[in-house]
Structure formats: structure tokens, C-alpha cells
# Entry
Amino acid sequence: LSLSRVESEERVRPQEVVDIGGVIASVVSSLRPTADEAGMEVVVSGKENQARVRGDPDQLAQVLSNLLENAIKYGQAGSQAEISLTTADHDVSVRGPAVIVSVSDDGEGFDPVHIPRLTERFYRVDNHRSREMGGTGLGLAIVKHIVSRHRGRLRIDTTPGEGSRFTVILPSA
# Structure
């Protein structure tokens, strides 16, 4: 239902100005118990001021929550999940000033051959492990549609044995 709702609104760009630093702080606070239970530390780095986008705060929180939950879920116990926040005066992917949020983990990573399909509904790199950990295969599809609604871009980088990084690039407000 959540994905259907996001898809139905995808062509309507949100107009509210949102402080991404505040959204990150809220998401990290709500997921800290999950990280503690998994034996992971969540580290936030980067700018906390002047990172504003036009957006839906609830949907942006869902994007960051989905990405951080994945980093915690697929990261290694005793390692870190990192959220970094930066800005750029000009980013070609959004054709102007941008707010860039990256969520990375030190987990197993995966074969980059999966990247083109990773945001498809129900697609999983490892079906058995995802089901075991409670994954539905919808989280990244939801992320992709929300980022698209916000006229942003999603970039995925991974190295087997070293971890993954999911970067959301949004136009600055």
C-alpha cells in the first residue's frame, strides 16, 4: 500500500521546505535501538545547517529509514552504519545545487551485477537471507519512487566483501 501511495503521487512535486539534518536526526534516533540490538554503531557526519530541500518530510524520513535499516540489517555486528550529509553548489544529476545524503555499511556488499535490478519490486540479491531477516523486497522500490517524486537521483555503489553505499541526491531548496 505504501508503494502504491508513493506511485500515485510521483508526478506531484512536494513544495514544503524540509531540513534534511533534522530528518536524519529523527531517523537515527528512532533506529538507534535496532542498531544497538544488532551490535552496530550509527555515525552521522557532515553538514547540519543549510541542507534544505523541497519535500515531504514523512517520505524523506521513509527513504532514510529504509536505507539505514538496510545498512543495519546487512552490516556486520561490531561495525558502523554511516550517514553523511553534504551539499554541492552544482550537481549534474539534478542540474543545480544539491543536498547529498549517503548511507553506507561495512557489510558483505554484493555483486554489482545486481544494481540495475535492485530497485525493482520484490527483487532480492539473496532471497534466503532477506526472508530470514524479514525483508519484503519493496524497500528500495519505495526509495526509488520517493526520490523520483522529489526530482532526485539514487546512486548505488557496492564492493563484495567491503560493503555498500546508497546515495540520494536531491535539488536544494
